[in-house]
Each structure stands twice: as C-alpha cells, then as structure tokens.
Amino acid sequence: MEKEILFKIKKKLERLGDKSIGETQTKESLINPLISALGWDVTDFDEVKLEYKHIRKATPVDYALLIEMTPKLYIEAKQLGANLDDYKWIAQILTYSTMAGVKWSILTDGNHYKLYNTTAEAKLEEKLFYEWRIKDLTETNIDKVVNFLNLLTKEKFEDDEIELAWQNHFEVTKVRKTLKKLIEDKDESLLNLIRKKTKLTRATIVNSLNKLKVKIDGTHVPDVSMVSPEPKTVKKGFTGKIPEKAVFLNDTFEVKTWKDLLVTVAEILIKQKPDVFNNLPDSQTMRTVFGGTFLTRDKNLLRIPHQLSNGLFLEINLDANTIVRVIKKRLLLGTGYKETDIKIFVKQ
C-alpha cells in the first residue's frame, strides 16, 4: 500500500471542497482507487463483486471482496459527506455481513472509513476495529495508517494476519476500559493494592489520583505489533493445515503442531549456533516494523512466551503462516542459513 495513493485521493477531496457528489461518483473516484491500491482487482468479477447478494432475496452490498470465491470483506458505500455515525448505516452493514457470515465489513463515504468485526462477541460500538479519514492524513500520521491498511491488502487477508491484530486490539481495549473504570470509581481493590505497594493512606491515594488526573485515552491505531510485515512465502499458505514433519540440516523430525515446529527449529539453532542465536534479540531480525518482537529476554514483551533452553523467550501465539515466515525469514536468515534449508511437510 503506497501512501501516495492516499494523498492523491486526499487532493481529489480537497478540490471538491464542500461540493457533494453522488454515491456512484464516490465509488468510482474515491473508493475504487483505494481498493485497487490494496491489491484487489476491481475489474475481476471473481475477486471483487459489485452489488453482491449472498442469496437471491438478500439486499445487495456495494462491494464483496473474495478469496477463492468466498466473500471475506464487505464494503458499503454512502454518498460523500454522509454521517457514518448514524446508527441506521452501521446496523445496515453489520446486518448484511452477519446474514452472509462475513466477518469483516467497511462503511465509507469515500473519505471516512469505519472497519467492523461483524462477528465479535461485543457491544456494537466495540465491534468497531479501526477508522480513518483521508482528509485528516498528514505526513506525520500517514505511516501509521498505511501500516494498518496493509492488513487489508489481498495478500495479507489471504494469511488472516488481521485476526491477530484484532485479538491484540480487543484485549488491550478491554484492559484499558477496565482500568479506567477502576480509577474513575475509586475501586477499593485498586486502592488497597496501591496502599499495599506504597504504604500510603487511602485518603492520600485518592487525593493523589485526583491531582494526577489520570486519563487513559483510546488509541486511534490498534496494536498490530505482533503482525509480521513480510509477504507470504507460500502461495497457498498453511492456514487450516496440520504439520507432519520437517527436514532441516539433513535431519528429519516429526511435529504435531505449528508451535512444536517453531520451538523445535529454535532449539536446533540454539545447539548449532548458540552465540549467534543468543544475539538475535539485540538485532532487527526478530523485530517488526510496528515495534514488536518475536524473540526477547523479557517475557513481558510477548503475548504468550515460551522459554527456550537458553533462557530466551519466543512468541508462540502465532498463526501457521506467520510461524513459517518467522522460521524462514527470522530464525534461519538471522543465524546465517537460507530459507530453502528447511522443508516443511503437512498431512494430506
């Protein structure tokens, strides 16, 4: 996803000013270029279907983005300037998606975009994953927006990398809201914990919290730090498949899960090149462009850490495709091997 595309769309919006254009022109001039920039071919009926109905009697949705003939993302377009916070528009796209069993949906007027996780077991407002306005993009904030939009590219969607980003976002949001409420309510359990740690009186703690004016803001950009930024290395991917064995350094070993494969390869590398492996957490090899890491000395930096035999911690809360990329592009390349030095076999 190139940020220049977004700036081009922004210029179109700026030229329009306060002028209104219809829904059809909004699609052609503003929405189609963005969909194309994300790697979806709007001219390919098998990839992007317009006025799509999942059943004959259903109300059509403006766009259905498909992978292997299966709708993965719905987009409902409104006239430029429409109020996307209007409940009827939100309910409309969520209803379309829910009825069709499509997890991801976008509501947009060509400038304002709102991405929803339709199937999330949460209140309506908590289903909103991410939103952005093209008119608000600047050189300062556009990189963060582009980093997130990369998850919506066809390539990333095929690997389901957005799933991990959503999980991060949803958990962080729940913790933030809970902590905020504890502070606002001056919850006794929280005050007791602070009192135990500080040895201060309750009145002093309450007074201090009031002085601090503790504020926990929502974040505009969800936490996508554990999402691997590299393109997929296997066209069909490993999603839904079960690993059976792998061949590495002329040795064959059997595995039952993708986690087993990741940990086994790491342990082999520790034995083969202990010093090089120990230095991996200090290099950029194991880091993502979003500031996350897959290998560290501090387990608190990981979602689900697994401690290796050398004391380092490895992230194991990863999908199959990400695990394969971490093995090939991080662990192997980082220790001086080639991606082709390992062969992975799955059960038929």
Structural overview:
The chain is of the alpha+beta class and 348 residues long. It has helices at residues 3-16, 23-37, 87-100, 142-149, 154-158, 161-184, 188-198, 202-212, 258-272, 274-278, 320-334; strands at 48-52, 61-67, 70-77, 104-108, 112-117, 128-133, 243-248, 251-254, 295-296, 305-307, 313-315, 342-346. The strands form three sheets. A six-stranded mixed β-sheet has the order 1-2-3-4-5-6. α1 (3-16) packs antiparallel against α2 and α9 (258-272) packs parallel to α11 (320-334). The radius of gyration is 24 Å and the shape is globular. The protein starts with a helix and ends with a strand.
Short description, anyone?
The protein is of the alpha+beta class and about 350 residues long. The chain has 11 helices and 12 strands. The longest helix is centred in the middle third of the chain and has 24 residues, at about 160-185.
Write the layout of secondary structure elements.
Blueprint: H1 3-16, H2 23-37, E1 48-52, E2 61-67, E3 70-77, H3 87-100, E4 104-108, E5 112-117, E6 128-133, H4 142-149, H5 154-158, H6 161-184, H7 188-198, H8 202-212, E7 243-248, E8 251-254, H9 258-272, H10 274-278, E9 295-296, E10 305-307, E11 313-315, H11 320-334, E12 342-346
Parallel strand pairs: 3-4
Antiparallel strand pairs: 1-2, 2-3, 4-5, 5-6, 7-8, 7-12, 9-11, 10-11
